Amino acid sequence: MIRTILVPASGSSTDDAVFATALAVARPLAAHLEFYHVHLTAAEAAVCAPYADLRVGAALPVTLNVLREEESALSDTASAHVQSFCSRFSVPMRTCPERSNAVSATFLEERDHARDRLLMHSRHSDLVVLGRPSHIDYLPSKLMEDLLLSCGRPILIAADFSPMTVTGTVVVGWKETAEAARALGAAWPLLEKAHKVILLHIVEDEPSIPESLKHLAERIKWHGITAQIVVISSGHHALSYHLARTAADLKADLLVVGGFGHSRLRERVFGGVTQSLLEHANVPVLMMH
């Protein structure tokens, strides 16, 4: 069940697509949107500032003052983005939990310790919706991978556009792994609302439908979901390329994937798949590790 959705508000240009993606998920589930912003101190922002060479000597006070002003502006912009979005789409702001048949929202702003705070809020939410890194908000560059590996919750990575729905056609990238099973389970509330569900399996040799995939399709029928099976050969292209390309060809509203790495260093491989999907997937991607 997805009832609470954490939606980090960065104050950058990615907010529009992130907010719209979160709303597209929340609407069919009548979920609550928890908009959240971490206001970094100048010292914390300096760690990820692009002008690192100015952070020493006499230039340090000037640099910190600039970062302080930029962080304050980002915080004000994030708050304005949330207020404008909720007003535009008639999403009521609520502070007390209550059962409802409509989407609601809250906005929370905290200061410092971005990684630890985001991890805590992510672990306490049913779903986290993130934007592609813009590197404007001075958050750690590997924060997305860190959340994917450490929060224990599904992460939905928004595309660069604002979707109207994520429950038209849902493509599930399937491989016989625990990670893929967890991703399937995490996406279940959306699969039940989807108009079409496609199980996508990628093989290295001639495409054929494995018995395990037929078994999975039969099992999910017990939940009232009829899934189409698509099997393709990887050829010379990377797995992430085929996931993104096939999702686009199938006009998917959402791509669901788990872990696809063969290496024992799963964290490194998983980060590579994530980065490739960020570069190639023009569709929201729900991931679970």
Description:
By secondary structure, the chain is an alpha/beta fold. It folds into 2 domains: 4-157, HUPs (Rossmann fold, 3-Layer(aba) Sandwich), CATH 3.40.50.620; 169-287, Rossmann fold. It has helices at residues 15-29, 42-46, 60-88, 114-123, 143-150, 178-186, 188-193, 211-221, 239-249, 266-280, and strands spanning 4-8, 32-39, 104-111, 127-130, 155-157, 169-173, 196-203, 227-233, 254-257, 285-287. The protein has a 10-stranded mixed sheet with strand order 3-2-1-4-5-10-9-6-7-8, with helices on both faces. Strand 1, helix 1 (15-29) and strand 2 (32-39) form a beta-alpha-beta unit. Helix 4 runs parallel beside helix 5 (143-150) and helix 9 (239-249) packs parallel to helix 10 (266-280). The radius of gyration is 20 Å and the shape is globular. The protein starts with a strand and ends with a strand. The model is unreliable at 260-270 (pLDDT under 50).
Topology:
Elements: E1 4-8, H1 15-29, E2 32-39, H2 42-46, H3 60-88, E3 104-111, H4 114-123, E4 127-130, H5 143-150, E5 155-157, E6 169-173, H6 178-186, H7 188-193, E7 196-203, H8 211-221, E8 227-233, H9 239-249, E9 254-257, H10 266-280, E10 285-287
Parallel strand pairs: 1-2, 1-4, 2-3, 4-5, 6-7, 6-9, 7-8, 9-10
Antiparallel strand pairs: 5-10
Helix pairs in contact: 4-5, 9-10
